[in-house]
User: Which sequence fits this backbone?
């Protein structure tokens, strides 16, 4: 698959996933990897990090009973807008493909 | 393929090794606080896998090699790219300017040494890896293998630099002794004339440095720009040895030992200046990082200060 197209899709999936609720980074990565087994975990981590840097997601530390504190991810308003945009784009693309009969 | 040959030839056997290799790949591309952040995340994730019973082999297969992790992060971080010292062209310019100075300016060798010491800062920069190794190896229970690197600085290089002042002082002592006892010294060492023998030994030394230069240049082209400071530095050392040989061969041996001492002290002073300059560049770089990160943190704090509990 085209790298750019794939990245857009992965980004949308991650945003959709954290929109459903606050998530621990490791869980996001593992769940995404279950859906896309051919994409390495590190790719998801890199995308997650970028989303955080761009302001689409915020992080905060959560204490765990044993071990070091964990970093959780949460979607921001900016992220929601971005997700809506991606959804629309993706639906448009789907419509075009269906219309063409591919 | 080339990178596989040189960089990933040793299988990673512990989490600490994985993290320090990752740190090594990231240090040149990301500001240091960000490197620590990424490593902390990876330490957390690898620990979970480890607790679930995954071996290091499966972990590497799952997350990818440290190099590929760094590549993925670079792909997703456009702002990490424009770091001037990351480009080979920058180092080539330093190299060309320094070479021009060497051949066209009086006292060029000294200036060259000062410029090539600029490349030493590259090694100091890698010294940050020492703190990475320290920080991330502590919690790792697997035994740490001894490595050819001490805090990212190759062990031989460290030994050579520590031994250099001692070597210079020894040469000075030896030269004084030779001047005092020139009449009783043997004219031949084996079948060779003493003068030629000394010439051959210094030639051998020069060849060794030349080989080091060729090796570091080769590694720069085949693996990573990390090796380029070493190449510039080796060239600096090579030219400096040639210059020193020139001075010694054209020197009036009837001059007193004090002249020799003067030359040795001069060498040490320039050597110290080189290291001081390297530290200066390193500090400058740290300050650049600090100011950029402060600006980022201030804007990020405003957003996340209200969300500190779960």
Assistant:
């Amino acid at each position: 698959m085209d790298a750019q197209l794939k990245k857009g899709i992965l980004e949308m999936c991650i945003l959709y996933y954290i929109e459903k609720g606050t998530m621990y980074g490791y869980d996001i990565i593992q769940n995404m990897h279950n859906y896309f087994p051919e994409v390495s975990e590190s790719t998801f981590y890199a995308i997650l990090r970028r989303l955080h840097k761009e302001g689409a997601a915020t992080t905060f530390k959560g204490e765990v009973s044993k071990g070091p504190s964990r970093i959780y991810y949460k979607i921001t308003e900016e992220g929601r807008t971005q997700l809506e945009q991606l959804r629309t784009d993706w639906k448009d693309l789907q419509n075009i493909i269906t219309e063409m009969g591919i | 393929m080339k990178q596989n040959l040189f960089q990933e030839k040793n299988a990673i056997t512990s989490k600490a090794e994985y993290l320090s290799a990752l740190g090594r790949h990231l240090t040149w591309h990301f500001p240091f606080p960000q490197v620590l952040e990424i490593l902390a995340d990876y330490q957390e994730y690898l620990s979970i896998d480890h607790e679930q019973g995954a071996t290091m082999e499966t972990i590497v297969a799952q997350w990818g090699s440290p190099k590929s992790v760094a590549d993925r992060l670079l792909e997703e971080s456009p702002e990490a790219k424009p770091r001037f010292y990351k480009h080979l062209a920058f180092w080539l310019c330093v190299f060309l300017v320094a070479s021009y100075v060497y051949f066209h300016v009086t006292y060029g060798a000294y200036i060259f040494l000062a410029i090539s010491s600029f490349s030493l800062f590259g090694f100091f920069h890698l010294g940050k890896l020492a703190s990475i190794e320290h920080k991330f190896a502590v919690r790792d229970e697997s035994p740490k293998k001894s490595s050819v690197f001490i805090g990212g600085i190759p062990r031989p290089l460290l030994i050579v630099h520590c031994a250099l002042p001692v070597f210079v002082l020894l040469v000075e002592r030896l030269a004084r002794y030779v001047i005092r006892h020139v009449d009783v010294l043997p004219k031949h060492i084996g079948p060779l004339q003493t003068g030629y023998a000394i010439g051959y030994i210094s030639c051998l030394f020069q060849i060794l440095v030349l080989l080091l230069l060729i090796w570091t240049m080769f590694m720069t082209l085949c693996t990573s720009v990390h090796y380029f400071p070493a190449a510039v530095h080796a060239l600096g050392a090579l030219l400096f040895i040639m210059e020193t040989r020139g001075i010694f061969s054209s020197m009036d041996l009837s001059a007193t030992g004090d002249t020799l001492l003067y030359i040795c002290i001069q060498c040490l002073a320039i050597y110290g200046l080189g290291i001081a300059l390297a530290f200066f560049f390193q500090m400058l770089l740290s300050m650049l990082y600090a100011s950029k990160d402060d600006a980022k943190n201030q804007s990020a704090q405003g957003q996340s200060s209200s969300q500190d509990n779960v």
